[in-house]
Write a structure and sequence with these properties.
Elements (H helix, E strand, L loop, with lengths): L1 H14 L5 H15 L9 E8 L5 H13 L4 E5 L5 H5 L6 E6 L8 E6 L4 E7 L4 E10 L2 E9 L8 H5 L8 E6 L15 H13 L2 E2 L7 E2 L6 E2 L2 E6 L2 E8 L8 E7 L4 H8 L10 H4 L1 H13 L10
Parallel strand pairs: 1-2, 7-8
Antiparallel strand pairs: 1-14, 2-4, 3-4, 5-6, 6-7, 8-12, 9-12, 10-11, 13-14
Helix pairs in contact: 1-2, 6-9
GO molecular function, one term: catalytic activity
InterPro entries: Endo/exonu/phosph_ase_sf (IPR036691), Endo/exonuclease/phosphatase (IPR005135)
Organism: Trypanosoma vivax (strain Y486)
């Protein structure tokens, strides 16, 4: 049966014009979905991106459309779009559905792009802090993924209540957020600030993972300094290949990653925290994600009575 499925998929791959980015993406998704629980993956693997555009001008829209097709992106949380209400209702971007929240007087706006042909359920569109948009992608009756995009204004603080809005309902979640804050777990080039500490404490209590590596995701304007103000959160799914790349169109880097929805031994190993590692030592070796996991594990183990020797 498995051999027959793969032969059918190979035939599809041969027929589809892979020079077209959309056709190549469809072929890739067919291969992953047809494999089911007897092939490569027991669930869909999708390519996602995240970008703070610093204002989505016409020139940036052209560059964005080119990059989305070049990287065969399925979904893209956008922050700092600076779109007015009329522009937000009907942006022109070929091949993608748009769901977004127009900017407020003190905010930047948040949007989500999803490739045409994918089933989308529109969720929250919120102007309060954080400005956010959310959609749910339906891959099958038993597989879905919620995508959220959020923007925290620079002068606005964060609270548990405002961060809780990112979680939404239960189920797999990927959230791209411009948090306008620093923490050494995802931004070793800058000292931690109060907002960054609050975000990490909230992650410890609620168990979403920060998937950033230690790579910078932003150029400081008019200086050679680098930092990271954008983070990617995930819950009940796995993010891999998180990578920022220099973007000539914006001071913020173009972030790409793969999102895996399903059950895998690697994902179970990540979330069960089999070893307790001092969090202050981990970021230098394994990156921000491992540091956060170590912090979560050590906090969960506080207060447990020590086992007595027989």
């Amino acid at each position: 049966m498995q051999q027959r499925r793969h032969s059918e998929v190979n035939e599809v791959l041969r027929i589809l014009p892979c020079a077209c980015g959309r056709a190549a993406l469809d072929a890739r998704r067919l291969l992953l979905l047809a494999s089911g629980d007897v092939g490569r993956n027991p669930g869909p693997l999708t390519r996602g991106t995240q970008w703070n555009s610093g204002g989505l001008s016409q020139a940036k829209r052209v560059a964005l459309e080119r990059k989305l097709n070049e990287h065969m992106v399925l979904f893209c949380p956008l922050q700092g779009t600076h779109l007015a209400s009329a522009e937000c209702a009907a942006p022109t971007l070929g091949g993608y559905q748009h769901v977004g929240q127009a900017r407020t007087p003190h905010g930047g706006g948040a949007s989500i792009l999803v490739r045409d042909g994918v089933g989308v359920e529109v969720g929250v569109l919120e102007k309060k802090v954080p400005e956010r948009a959310a959609v749910t992608l339906r891959f099958s009756a038993n597989a879905s993924l919620t995508i959220a995009s959020a923007y925290f204004p620079r002068r606005a603080g964060v609270s548990s209540e405002s961060l809780d809005t990112l979680l939404g309902a239960s189920g797999p979640l990927v959230a791209g957020a411009d948090v306008n804050s620093h923490h050494v777990l995802w931004d070793p080039l800058c000292p931690s600030d109060d907002k960054g500490e609050d975000i990490v404490d909230w992650c410890v209590r609620n168990d979403p993972l920060i998937t950033n590596t230690e790579s910078a995701a932003r150029r400081q304007p008019s200086t050679p300094a680098l930092s990271s103000l954008d983070i990617t959160l995930c819950r009940d799914c796995e993010i891999s290949n998180w990578k920022p790349a220099l973007s000539p169109e914006s001071e913020r880097y173009w972030i790409t990653f793969d999102a895996f929805v399903g059950t895998s031994s690697k994902y179970k190993l990540v979330t069960q925290f089999p070893k307790i590692v001092p969090p202050r030592l981990v970021p230098r070796i394994h990156g921000a994600r491992a540091g956060l996991e170590g912090a979560v594990a050590s906090r969960k183990c506080r207060g447990r009575p020590r086992a007595r020797m027989p």
